[in-house]
């Protein structure tokens, strides 16, 4: 059985976590917490020294951490010291940094934000086998995804916008013409890689919802890739700024986003962890810097 994993992002730094069914809470990688709080470039050494000091002082934190296998940047799993969410504040108190309290505030309340609530809903798309019922590549399918992610959060969840919106000086499809444009996008072919990405780019330009377009449309894109190419995107391989810049440029030239997506395709299409990691990165793309 695959692990239930989650990746949170604090000031653009990954904080990996794994769910413990036995204890009913998230366990966070201690080296990630240290990096997030201190900015240390040698968090393992930092933790080794700190753990030794805590043991000498008889502090239970040093012995109460759990070794869990987490995936590292090289794609391999390593035993990693992890600490339960209920104990993170105790760890932060012994790390001398002005950032500790801000980190704790972020960690404790991140799941209560709009993105936090929506991300939890996104996880259940996989766990609830709901993805199989979504009509792939259609406007209705995209509406279903959006409605599920944002129901109870936005009153317009799953509803095509009736107002014209813009972002960064670019105006998306004028609301008056949006229904017709969406039908044109839906009819676009989706057999080859280039066709699929072209369709994705056009859907992004249409921007059918008032908010939540990117998070919904990236799931929609992956479903098309899975059906047509038996591939999906490993979003963790695409840098946030590179992705955002490529999508901005795609209005006139889609070559850059195509290159990024092509380099991140994987055939690991049934993996729960791949899907969850994709959700975490997708939501990270939307975080303000």
Plain-language structure description:
- The chain is elongated and about 70 Å long.
- It has helices at residues 30-38, 43-56, 61-64, 85-93, 100-109, 114-127, 139-150, 178-186, 193-206, 213-229, 240-249, 255-263, 272-285, and strands spanning 5-10, 13-20, 25-29, 66-71, 77-84, 166-167, 170-171, 232-233, 265-266.
- The chain contains 13 helices and nine strands.
- The chain is α+β, with helices and mostly antiparallel strands.
- The protein folds into two domains: 5-111; 115-285, Fido-like domain (Fic-like fold, Orthogonal Bundle).
- Strand 2 and strand 3 (25-29) form a beta hairpin.
- The strands form three sheets. It has a five-stranded antiparallel β-sheet with strand order 1-2-3-5-4. A two-stranded antiparallel sheet has the order 6-7.
List the helices and strands and how they pair.
Blueprint: E1 5-10, E2 13-20, E3 25-29, H1 30-38, H2 43-56, H3 61-64, E4 66-71, E5 77-84, H4 85-93, H5 100-109, H6 114-127, H7 139-150, E6 166-167, E7 170-171, H8 178-186, H9 193-206, H10 213-229, E8 232-233, H11 240-249, H12 255-263, E9 265-266, H13 272-285
Antiparallel strand pairs: 1-2, 2-3, 3-5, 4-5, 6-7, 8-9
Helix pairs in contact: 1-2, 6-13, 7-10, 8-9, 9-10, 11-12
């Amino acid at each position: 059985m695959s692990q239930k994993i989650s990746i949170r992002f604090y000031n653009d730094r990954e904080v990996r976590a794994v769910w413990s069914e036995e204890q009913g809470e998230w366990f966070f990688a201690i080296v990630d917490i240290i990096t997030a709080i201190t900015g240390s470039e040698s968090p393992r050494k930092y933790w080794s020294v700190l753990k030794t000091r805590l043991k000498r002082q008889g502090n239970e934190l040093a012995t109460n951490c759990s070794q869990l296998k987490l995936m590292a940047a090289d794609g391999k799993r390593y035993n990693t010291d992890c600490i339960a969410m209920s104990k993170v504040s105790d760890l932060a108190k012994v790390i001398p940094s002005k950032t500790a309290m801000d980190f704790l505030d972020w960690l404790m309340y991140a799941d209560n934000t709009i993105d936090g609530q929506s991300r939890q809903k996104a996880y259940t798309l996989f766990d609830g086998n709901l993805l199989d019922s979504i009509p792939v590549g259609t406007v209705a399918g995209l509406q279903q995804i959006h409605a599920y992610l944002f129901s109870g959060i936005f009153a317009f969840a799953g509803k095509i916008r009736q107002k014209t919106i813009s972002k960064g000086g670019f105006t998306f499809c004028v609301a008056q013409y949006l229904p017709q444009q969406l039908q044109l996008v839906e009819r676009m072919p989706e057999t080859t890689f280039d066709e699929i990405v072209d369709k994705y780019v056009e859907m992004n330009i249409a921007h059918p919802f008032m908010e939540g377009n990117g998070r919904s449309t990236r799931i929609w894109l992956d479903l098309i890739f899975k059906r047509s190419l038996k591939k999906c995107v490993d979003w963790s391989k695409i840098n946030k700024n590179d992705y955002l810049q490529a999508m901005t440029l795609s209005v006139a030239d889609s070559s850059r986003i195509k290159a990024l997506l092509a380099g991140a395709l994987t055939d690991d299409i049934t993996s729960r962890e791949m899907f969850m990691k994709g959700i975490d990165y997708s939501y990270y793309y939307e975080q303000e810097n």
